[in-house]
Design a protein that fits this description.
The chain is 82% helix and 0% strand. The protein contains nine helices and no strands. The relative contact order is 0.04.
Length: 251
């Protein structure tokens, strides 16, 4: 009975191994023929249906996802593949993670993955080359950043200098305008004085001429006014010398 069970178990195991080998071979063939979707399907059958997996299977599955432009699943399976003690496969998986980050311009992350890849396998020349390439990109980026920072600083200083010059020019222009205005005012005052000197006040003859009156007639009128004023004053004197009548009231 036990012998029979061993035979049955052996057959079952043998059948399982045959199917695993068949699916593995089919997946590899599909990958070589660039039929990546079929390759993915076969590798998933091995993992999900036969509970069969290893670092090489995860690495090939990750390659298939990456080449079919499924980056997220590629990253997931490269991470699984990197958890192995097989240092060569570990190095390749880390290298691929570095490549993905480098393509996405995540240079710091890419450099870290390449470094780990080289540590895992110092013979991985592709990772060494990529590491130096990304490091140079980062150095250039840092250098460009410093140059831009310096240019920005110089530009700010230049703008500040221009503003200062404009302020000084504005003050100088204002000063010149004030001086010009002062000169114009002085000139106007001098012209006014000169006009006053060239045009003295009108004479009596000129004033009389304007009202059509001769000098002789004006003298007659003046004498008459003087005589009237004299007579009026004399009358006031006579009134003041006359004695008041006590029998009459004061008014």
């Amino acid at each position: 009975m036990i012998f029979l069970m061993k035979i049955i178990l052996s057959i079952i195991l043998s059948d399982r191994i045959d199917k695993i080998n068949s699916l593995t071979k089919a997946a590899e063939t599909s990958f070589k023929n660039e039929n990546y979707l079929e390759s993915i399907e076969n590798y998933r059958l091995l993992i999900d249906s036969f509970d069969y997996s290893n670092e090489r299977l995860y690495l090939n599955l990750a390659h298939s996802h990456l080449l079919s432009e499924d980056t997220l699943n590629a990253i997931e399976n490269y991470n699984y593949a990197s958890l192995t003690n097989n240092l060569k496969i570990k190095s390749i998986a880390l290298q691929q993670l570095g490549n993905i980050n480098e393509r996405n311009n995540k240079l710091e992350e890419a450099l870290s993955f390449y470094r780990e890849s080289i540590i895992a396998d110092n013979q991985n020349n592709d990772s060494k080359f990529n590491y130096e390439l990304v490091k140079k990109k980062l150095d250039n980026k840092k250098e460009d950043k410093e140059k831009n920072k310096q240019k920005s600083k110089e530009k700010n200083q230049d703008n500040s200098s221009k503003e200062k010059k404009n302020d000084e020019k504005g003050k100088e222009d204002q000063k010149n305008n004030d001086n010009q205005k002062e000169k114009e005012d002085q000139k106007n005052n001098d012209n006014q004085k000169e006009n006053n000197q060239n045009n003295p006040e009108e004479t009596v003859e000129e004033k009389l001429k304007k009202i059509n009156m001769s000098k002789k007639k004006a003298e007659m009128i003046l004498n008459a006014l003087n005589n009237n004023e004299f007579q009026y004053i004399q009358q006031l004197k006579r009134k003041s010398n006359k004695k008041p009548n006590k029998n009459k009231p004061d008014w």
